[in-house]
Amino acid sequence: MTGRRTLRAGLIGLGAMGRNHARVLQSLPDVELVAAVDPRDPPQHPAMRVEVLNTTRELIDCGVDLCVVATPTSTHEAIGLELAEAGIAALIEKPLAHDSKAAQTIAEAFMRNGVIGCVGHIERYNPALQDMRRRLALGELGTVYQVITRRQGPFPARIADAGVVLDLATHDIDLTAWVTQSAYRSVSARVAHKSGRAHEDLVSAVGTLENGIVVTHLVNWLSPLKERVTTVTGELGCFVADTITADLTFYKNGTQVAQWDRVASFRGVTEGDMIRYAIPKPEPLMTELSNFVAAVRGEEESSLVTLEDGLATVRVAEALRESATTGRTVEAA
């Protein structure tokens, strides 16, 4: 017996991500997933082992303490406001909203009502990126110069209301600001529409952070190769995080003097040791939801992705799309 009150949890949205949330919520100690909402076709979800309702109001009336929102981005504002006004703590899947105005409205509603709200930027909870951030904070790369992310793979048929900037690049925007502990200053981007959809399916972006770090994001839904890689280069070497395998590798700048004239004539760094760190690898979604539950209990809140963080990410995504439309560099603040 833990002696703690069991928290009553709700879930809105039973798509691919919603079903993962249901699985993890049902495995957490002292948490009961009492009901879910999926207005599209509830009878198709019998395996959820939970009552499926039609509306957010019905879920609120069940008396839940917390709720996860895993619905299409365009619905986040209305659902978020309803939960905030009801005083229910919420984790809203990324991106926080379809535009910065809606994201700000959500953030203000939770603040006004004194309710915990956070955003499901799950990459922050990837073991490789968590260890990278810790090591960067300890100065293991010295001064950081550049962050490069590559996020590509086949088109996910479940995404219908957003392009790669809002759906995929927001992962990289958030994780870059988080691991470097610096906001974006300006961005420039180019997009392409190759699959016949209304939304962009490819973006190439460069930017500068407030602390001077240069960033590059390459994102697409057009590749048969699925890739999720973040490379951070600094004065002492580089870190490479693969968030598919949760591996973190360190490539150290060499210290040996080159004997071969052709190599010695290059006045950059030389190849040094390579280390693949052995790190614990808990499931990121388990870590994310455990932290959310702890915050609702009043035990921990600092590790949450705040609604303000989510708003900042949406603003940078809007700046990327503005740059792609105008062909100009856009201030991101």
Order of helices and strands: EHEEHEHEHEHEHEEEEEEHEHHE
Q: Any idea what the CATH superfamily of the largest domain is called?
A: Dihydrodipicolinate Reductase, domain 2
Q: Supply the helix-strand structural class.
A: alpha/beta
Work out the radius of gyration.
21 Å
* Spatial arrangement of strands, main beta sheet: 14-13-12-11-7-10-9-8-15
Class of the largest domain in CATH? Alpha Beta
Form type: globular
CATH topology of the largest domain: Dihydrodipicolinate Reductase, domain 2
Average pLDDT confidence is 92
Count of helical segments?
9
Secondary structure: helix percent = 25-40%
| First-to-last CA distance | 49 Å
Number of strands: 15
- Poorly predicted segments: none
Count of structural domains: 2
Organism: Pseudonocardia aurantiaca
Domain GFO/IDH/MocA-like oxidoreductase: 130-239
Pfam family, one: GFO_IDH_MocA_C3
Domain Gfo/Idh/MocA-like oxidoreductase N-terminal: 8-121
Q: What do you see in this structure?
A:
The protein is of the alpha/beta class and 333 residues long. The protein has 2 domains: 7-121 and 285-304, NAD(P)-binding Rossmann-like Domain (Rossmann fold); 124-282 and 314-331, 2-Layer Sandwich (Dihydrodipicolinate Reductase, domain 2). It has helices spanning 16-25, 56-61, 76-85, 100-112, 127-137, 164-180, 261-264, 284-296, 307-326; strands at residues 7-12, 31-37, 51-53, 66-69, 89-93, 117-120, 144-152, 184-192, 202-209, 214-220, 227-234, 237-242, 247-253, 271-276, 330-331. It has a 9-stranded mixed sheet with strand order 14-13-12-11-7-10-9-8-15. α6 crosses α9. The mean pLDDT is 92.
